[in-house]
Design goal:
homodimer, alpha+beta, seven-stranded antiparallel β-sheet, 39% strand
Chain lengths: 207, 207
């Protein structure tokens, strides 16, 4: 079905009611991965926060990036990564998306979101940041570099992958993560959760 | 079902066969949006290329970012954006994902991928870059800023949103894009396409 086309100019967008503008712009980039970032502070409080901006930076050596909001209020995840140098990225799945979403609440720094939302911190020997036991795959990272985005003071933070732990049956024979099997969830904007269902794996496009 | 947990250290990952490492690291970030970037060169050749790294940067004013690969070979999309100052981001849907994937082939610069893969360039009055008529929503952007990522020479390129055109029935009453209605597709790594199906919209997490 095709319906009427709606055209919005830059002025139309800027003049939208605040939450309409936030909804539109946050969903325009398309479905995004839902990931929990696990960190620990100097008092050993395990912190957990949901992010929808984790993206691939490179495979050799392996790097992931994430966009962090401006440091206009206390950002526990950012501060813990900079202080500790290590963090985890944990894939949200269909069983835990409600708990994952609750980590977006504004808890004081001395409260562990793991306890508040009912997820379990787990540790890899010698690695100081907690991962999420209920996630089907988790990644340990060390801080690599950051870039302050001039136009709005958001931050691109890049980490180097130190380890991966994954449910083995969720990997194809050539090591793709199968999101159907591991029930990886995607998110639209800030609050709408989508499951993903494989359509097709295509072959390399040869000209 | 829970299966055996597979643990890979950094050394394990770096020592994987090349395509296994590429598959693993490219799929670890979770489902990503599939978008086509439309540009035009100085000879008015309309260029089109698929990207899986479009991400939200900010809503007010509205910005989107994309990660570009290192400039070790000619990158038409990057060069056209820098020369023209404008480009479009177009959401891939279930009807056109095969054609969208084909744009990843290495066509010479004087060949238009629109023609080669069978998609239709369309134009907004006064805006020099083509959008994709077959996409259910498209965004016009102007170049804003870029950051060279030191660890591997990839580039974060940020654009300012100039306009949006969208099938009106795919917007909720408070202006979220509904990926079910508009059949937005997600991608795992470089080649595996997933459809998205809404599970639930959750309310703001209050503490």
């Amino acid at each position: 079905m095709k319906s009427k086309q709606k055209f919005l100019s830059r002025d139309d967008i800027i003049n939208l009611p605040k939450y309409h503008r936030i909804n539109l712009i946050n969903t325009l980039s398309g479905p995004r991965s839902a990931n929990l970032i696990g960190t620990q502070d100097s008092n050993n409080i395990a912190n957990l926060a949901i992010f929808n901006s984790v993206t691939h930076i490179g495979a050799n050596p392996p790097y992931l990036g994430v966009i962090m909001r401006p440091l206009t209020v206390v950002r526990d995840t950012y501060n813990n990564i900079k202080a500790l140098g290590h963090y985890t990225i944990n894939s949200v799945n269909e069983k835990i998306y409600k708990q994952a979403h609750l980590t977006s609440g504004k808890y004081p720094s001395h409260i562990s979101e793991f306890v508040e939302v009912g997820l379990t911190p787990a540790y890899v020997d010698g690695f100081p940041a907690p991962y999420v036991k209920e996630c089907n795959y988790s990644i340990g990272l060390s801080y690599q570099e950051e870039h302050l985005i001039a136009c709005n003071n958001t931050i691109l933070l890049i980490g180097s992958i130190e380890w991966v732990t994954i449910q083995e049956h969720g990997l194809t024979s050539d090591l793709c993560v199968d999101y159907d099997i591991l029930q990886s969830i995607a998110v639209g904007g800030l609050d709408t959760y989508y499951k993903t269902r494989k359509v097709e794996r295509l072959s390399y496009a040869k000209v």
